[in-house]
Fold this protein.
Amino acid sequence: MRRRLKILEFALSALWRRRFKNFAIVVVYGFTIAVLASILLMTDALRGEAEQILLGAPDLVVQRVAAGRHDLIPIDYAEEIRGLPGVGEVSPRYWGYYFDAFTESNFTFVGIDDGPPYELELLEGRLPSAPYECAVGEGVARVRSTGVGHELTLISHDGLGVIFDVVGEFRSPSSILTNDLVVFRNADLVELFGIPEGRAVDLSVEVFNDGEVATVAAKVKRIFPDSRPITRSEILRTYDAVFSWRSGMLLAVFSGALAAFCILAWDKATGISAEERREIGVLKALGWSTRDVLELKFWEGAAISVTAFLLGLIAALVHVLLLGASLLAPVIQGWSVLFPEFRFTPSISVYQLFVLGFLTVVPYVASTVAPSWKAAVTDPEEVMRG
Amino acid sequence: MSAVATPFIAADGVSKTYNPGRADEVRAVEAVTMHVDRGEVLVLEGPSGSGKTSLLSLIGCMSRPTSGRIVVDGRDVAKLAEGALTEERRRRFGFIFQQFHLISDLPAIDNVLVPLYPTEVSLREMRGRAHGALARLGMDGKATRKVRTLSGGEQQRVAIARALVNNPQVVVADEPTAHLDRRLAEELLVILEGIHRDGRTVVIATHDPRVFDHPIVDRILEMRDGRIVGERRS
Amino acid sequence: MNISKHRAFLLLTAVEVAVVVALVAHARGVAADLAATHIPAKREVAARLGLTDLAIWTEARYTRHPSQTDLFSPFQDFPSSLEHFPAGSVVGVPDLTAFRQPAEP
């Protein structure tokens, strides 16, 4: 153990000798890791969030497909679907998109059925219950400078301006779900969008037994060949695929960055300069065994990569947990005007951190040790002859 | 004079070939049989290319012979595994290289410490020994100076201190006076004399008459083309 | 002599690990808190409004509602339309295996 620590001491001295270069490597490497770890943490959190929240989504959504595209569905379909065993409520859903020319942002319009005034914990005010009332998401309120007690003017499908009273605004914590929403009564939404009578955007189906959902979906498809049932598990699976850290984009970026870096490190070391080779020969001549030399190279690589990994990880954790990923969010935002603030539930998998650590440290150490291998195993005299 | 005592180091029919079987094959040492007695000062004399450096490496456990035996203090070192050979080398031998082979970015003291790292000696004791070795050569005052700021003579003293820090039984020097003027060469020989007086064995490879004509030398082996062609007593 | 390098390095590394552990513990704590409060509330909103997707990308139909999109979205308004950046590079092609016809009885 003492010998090991002494070799570590010598390794650190060797690194310190070229401290500016090595410091730069730690910074660059650490930064790369910080970015990647941030992405991993964020997407993991989002996936966890989606998984938890969308458990409230409908058991089954039935859409209609015409000419390969999503089309409006006849409300009559609901009757037959309701008749299927295990099926409860079947309600028409009304929702769609609205391009607000004024702010150049896209809103999502959602309709709810009539009922008494309804309150929600994450809603300031209430949901609309009378004609020409609406509730808005935080993002909508912000870009249109409106809020509870104020008005919102929208353009209907036939080009006419319609004024709505804002009776509710969704609170910040829900913005990941509600940021771009405007919620209306179904009747108002039908009028706004000009949806023909007897049609809905899709149907929301309640299935009593979770295990039965797939069966019901299959039956619906059989009865209405032009329908497209979407189960809740499929909804959740979408988000699993989008935010899974194994999915293409992340791994591609990650591997690319890491590979480029290791190639750089390898490239600088593979020529293993004549001077480095001579130094190894001298060490061996002075009584360092092959194992000692390899251990030295190992510590040189490990010291840099472990430090870079830990510092990068700390930066990522601080960035995502304490700063709400404020640096990365704009990168993912693209050209969306409305983008929710990432106040999501952090979710950290120790397994993931381990894998990240492994992929950080091992290639770098390997690219430090491997080039020295030949010199390390050769008899010192031959190494020094050059 | 018959030597009844077993020699300290004995080479028996030893050969060393570099790049065997290839176009650039070099037979540096050919079927050499020689010995080194304990406590003597032995010189390997010959022009460059005569194989004296290679033979020096062989008896100093720095490389392995292509054929033949090398016995150091009763142990056949040619057969040893790498780890054991390294330990023999570290325990018994101290090397002074022709080009010093110091790490120029490091201070003198750190250079002297290098052979002590793979040992079980504590860091504190290491520093003590290193300072001691430098002090013996009058270099302790410059212990923290980077080697590249030292003169040629000073660098050689650092190299010698490094060779002595592990308290070796044998000091091996390869062309130690090659880059030295007369004054420094004489100083060096005085140092070697001191080393010898401590009871150590000294083996020197050189073609410098200042060395092999010096009174401290006990025996001289003449080498030509990888073979020993003559032996004389000083 | 000042503190040896290996001690300084090991100490620094230990501090870094401690900071990581502290941050992770903090995150877990925050997560537990939110799980008890905000998550159920958000789920309530999703249920009451019948929402199926998060409001992350507010571009058109295929990225705002990736779970509700057409069969061959998310890249196309029409067969040869251009991809929308950056959403198009993040949202993958939807899993079409769910839409196989069920076997005839």
Q: What stands out?
A: The longest helix of chain A spans residues 19-53.
